[in-house]
Amino acid sequence: MTPAIKITTKHECLRNPIRAFDWAAWVDGEEEGFIGRGPTEAAAIDNLLTALNVLHCRQCNSERITDRVYDAWWYHLCLDCGERFNEEEI
After folding, report:
1. How far apart are CA 42 and CA 39, in angstroms?
2. What was the pLDDT predicted at 3?
3. 73: which strand partners?
4. What SS3 state is found at 41?
5. Residue 54, number of CB atoms within 10 A of its CB
6. Could you tell me how far CA 85 lies from the centroid of its own chain?
7. For 33-61, how does the pLDDT look when each residue is reduced to its tens digit (9 = 90+)?
């Protein structure tokens, strides 16, 4: 089983008028590493997880994902809820 990642988030109202980067998310203890940004807390977390290449199910938010092949097509399968998806749907 993959160890859980503890993510810290913070609402930072930056000085620019664009609200697209108001939320920040980072792996706890790695504040000097990559910081995910987004207009909402969820978007910042998604940005961080995408950069870390951590897949999570949109249906149940589980990180228990495995790869499968069906009829020569690769897809990801959530081991908790059975949701199937590919990279374009993340």
Report:
1. 8
2. 59
3. 70
4. helix
5. 14
6. 14
7. 888 888 999 988 888 887 777 777 778 88
